[in-house]
Design a protein that fits this description.
Length: 133
Amino acid sequence: MIQWDQSLETGFLAIDEQHQELFKRVNEVIEAYNVGKARQEVKKTLQFLEEYVHTHFTMEEELQLQYKYPKYKEHKEMHEYFIKQIAEIKSRYEQNGPKITVTMALNRILLTWLREHILRVDKAFVDYIHSLE
Ligand SMILES: [Fe+2]
Ligand SMILES: [Fe+2]
């Protein structure tokens, strides 16, 4: 299980709250898998992730446009990559059911992508906003 911790805070409340929710949901599916309830949970979480990630990324991208963030395009491309990863896990799930690979893929996304993205990319963008104030 990957816990959300304070080092992941960007300092922008609405963004931090959404990041926490993302962590919570992905952890829920990993836990459900561990207690053998994966089938409903994986499906529910993948659906949730697709919608939530869209909402979250749109909010960040709109803020970036509003503040004329110079790395907007790069940042948006990373979001698109993440969306593609979710779609891939979802189609794998639809073909194979909630096998270990699905949970591992979700786990890996949190560990290597979401966490890194927040620490490096989202933080840089929030720092930029704060530097304008
Ligand atoms: Fe982002
Ligand atoms: Fe984010």
